[in-house]
Design brief:
Blueprint lengths: L1 H12 L10 H30 L10 H5 L5 E2 L5 H8 L5 H5 L3 E2 L4 H9 L4 E2 L3 H15 L28 H13 L2 H9 L2 H5 L2 H4 L14 H31 L2
Parallel strand pairs: 1-2, 1-3
């Protein structure tokens, strides 16, 4: 019993054991616990290194309010609803203030090249931005762009236009409603721009440099390691007791 208790405490405290256990079951249980502790500690150490090595990314702006406070040129596609709203906006509004630092032209490939070179930002809709990010990732296998977290407008609806008294309108509405209920259009859209998810993972491309106090959830992994170690050590301890009693009973 003393040997089992000594081995258990030595394993938990990380101390060297001068005498190895002689029972096979004790060796197996202790070896399994040591192997699992090594694997889990290696994973935690690797995650800690990744967090320390990852550089802090300070963005020049992350919302429309921050954008208008800078002198960054912003491309707005000519003739779009965004440009019309910007031109008609009051001077003191966000869109009105953006008007002084905006550039507009029709050449979309040129706008993408200028954006890649960092010569201006781009104010476009969500679908267009996803398409551009997806295409750039396919061409360069990298994510050189980022999107602001705070959107200026909410989602805009997409609809089909029919002439009045169109006889198939009710049937088409019914079919579209069923498709939307099952999420098929959204699934097809995400499938077409699947690379956007690779470029918009917050934990890799947008690390947060804000400090926060630790909570209980940050220690769940450590608690699991210690609880597993104590449980396996208890099993080793009980196994040693049972094997010791059985050995004493079999002795003449």
């Amino acid at each position: 019993m003393w040997s089992s208790a000594y081995l258990t405490l030595a394993f938990l405290l990380g101390q060297s054991v001068p005498r190895l256990p002689s029972a096979s079951a004790t060796r197996i249980m202790g070896g399994l616990w040591l192997l699992s502790a090594l694997i889990i500690s290696s994973v935690y150490r690797s995650n800690l290194k990744a967090m320390l090595i990852l550089p802090i990314l300070r963005l020049p702006f992350d919302s429309m309010e921050e954008l208008v406070e800078t002198n960054i040129l912003t491309y707005v596609t000519e003739g779009t609803m965004l440009q019309k709203q910007m031109m008609d906006a009051p001077p003191n509004s966000l869109l009105g203030r953006l008007r002084s630092q905006s550039v507009s032209y029709w050449d979309v490939p040129r706008a993408i090249r200028e954006l890649m070179l960092g010569r201006h930002a781009t104010f476009v809709g969500r679908i267009v931005s996803h398409s551009v990010i997806h295409r750039i990732f396919e061409q360069t296998n990298s994510c050189p762009l980022y999107t602001a977290k705070k959107a200026f407008w909410g989602g805009t609806s997409v609809a089909f236009a029919f002439r009045k008294d169109f006889p198939l309108k009710l049937k088409i509405d019914k079919a579209l409603r069923r498709l939307l209920e099952f999420g098929i259009p959204e699934h097809l859209y995400r499938k077409q721009v699947k690379n956007v998810r690779k470029c918009q993972k917050d934990d890799f491309t947008r690390p947060s440099d804000a400090l926060r106090p630790l909570d209980l959830g940050d220690f769940y992994g450590v608690f699991t390691v210690y609880a597993g170690g104590i449980l396996l050590s208890l099993l080793v301890f009980l196994t040693e007791i049972l094997l010791g009693r059985r050995a004493r009973r079999t002795q003449p």
